[in-house]
Write a structure and sequence with these properties.
Helix content is about 45%, strand content about 10%. With about 325 residues, the protein is an alpha/beta fold. It has two domains: about 55-225, Glucose-6-phosphate isomerase like protein, domain 1 (Rossmann fold, 3-Layer(aba) Sandwich); about 245-310, Helicase, Ruva Protein, domain 3. The chain has a five-stranded parallel beta sheet, with helices on both faces. A two-stranded antiparallel ribbon has the order 1-2. Strand 5, helix 5 (about 155-165) and strand 6 form a beta-alpha-beta unit. Helix 7 (about 245-255) packs parallel to helix 9 (about 275-285) and helix 8 (about 260-270) crosses helix 9 (about 275-285).
Length: about 325
């Protein structure tokens, strides 16, 4: 027998708006009576909402990428600010850019409320400190981009960071899941992921977190592509820090330059392990030194370097 449920809470508690992420999801009212398979199916169906929410904000996200590209090319950097799940997702995204795209340290930086300890432990009141957010953003400048991540759109730590960043002339952006986000007024770019109520009420590690992860993946990947960190769809900036990645580097060279395994290994040796240099050397049929110079003149873009050498594109 289905359990009787009182009316779902209204949008307002007194005069205070209840964010969509804190409201109850009709489809999961009987959650604790479902089978394991039914719970997983429900979660999967709701995850599709997160995918659609990110697709819906593609134009705004693209605009933010374009702003970030221009500022990074001028020597600026991108800073993520978040707490709890949002902060952990920000740290994950920033950390993965180094091995994947060989991005220089300091170009994309994540600031987590509560610091490193908060990655694995709950740090009491960390997200509630406006002053901590301001301190984390104190070094930003006019060529930087500050991106606040908060499902509710109201985290004080994020608010402090965005306020400080704006005062210092940085471009500010807010990624939230609340169309009435309190911090939207601090954002030059306001991106709202409409994920709605969670399967477990208020647990924004679910749809909201998934949507934030997808939005960050899209933002940083598009940023890296625009900065020339790929060639075609190949990860030509990958840092070979282990045997798996060394095999991947060789495979990418073989795929992109049409060389054999032994030829690729020899090319990488001559290029001191620099995959981009090896690719340009092979595809343009030029000496290693000339390939390295062409890449330097093209800000590290294989496509632009090959164009400068009048070589075939991917």
């Amino acid at each position: 027998m289905a359990m009787h449920h009182p009316a779902l809470e209204p949008l307002l508690e007194g005069d205070v708006y209840v964010p969509e992420t804190e409201q109850r999801l009709t489809e999961s009212l009987e959650l604790d009576s479902l089978s394991t398979t039914e719970i997983l199916a429900l979660l999967a169906s709701q995850d599709r909402v997160a995918v659609d929410a990110v697709a819906a904000v593609a134009p705004q996200l693209a605009g933010l990428v374009d702003v970030a590209v221009g500022r990074v090319l001028r020597g600026g950097s991108v800073h993520y600010f978040g707490a709890g799940t949002s902060g952990r997702l920000a740290v994950l995204d920033a950390a993965e850019l180094l091995p994947t795209f060989n991005i220089e340290p300091g170009v994309v930086v994540a600031h987590m409320a509560g610091g490193a300890r908060a990655l694995v432990h709950a740090v009491e009141n960390a997200e509630d400190s406006v002053d901590d957010g301001r301190r984390e953003a104190a070094t930003l400048g006019a060529d930087d981009v500050a991106i606040g991540l908060t499902a509710s759109g109201s985290t004080p730590f994020v608010g402090g960071a965005l306020a400080q960043a704006r005062e210092l002339g940085a471009h500010t952006a807010l990624i939230s899941c609340n169309p009435r986000a309190a911090l939207a007024a601090l954002a030059d770019t306001d991106i709202v992921l409409r994920t709605g109520p969670e399967v477990v009420t208020g647990s924004t590690r679910l749809k909201a977190g998934t949507a934030e992860k997808l939005a960050l993946n899209g933002f940083s990947t598009a940023l890296m592509v625009a900065l020339g960190r790929t060639w075609s769809n190949l990860m030509v900036s990958v840092v070979a820090t282990n045997e798996k990645l060394r095999r991947r580097t060789l495979r990418i060279l073989m795929q992109s330059a049409g060389v054999s395994q032994s030829e690729g290994a020899e090319l990488l040796t001559r290029a001191d392990g620099d995959l981009k240099v090896a690719i340009v050397t092979a595809v343009a049929a030029v000496p290693v030194d000339r390939a390295r110079a062409a890449l330097a003149a093209a800000n590290g873009s294989v496509r632009a370097a090959l164009a400068g050498l009048d070589a075939p594109s991917a």
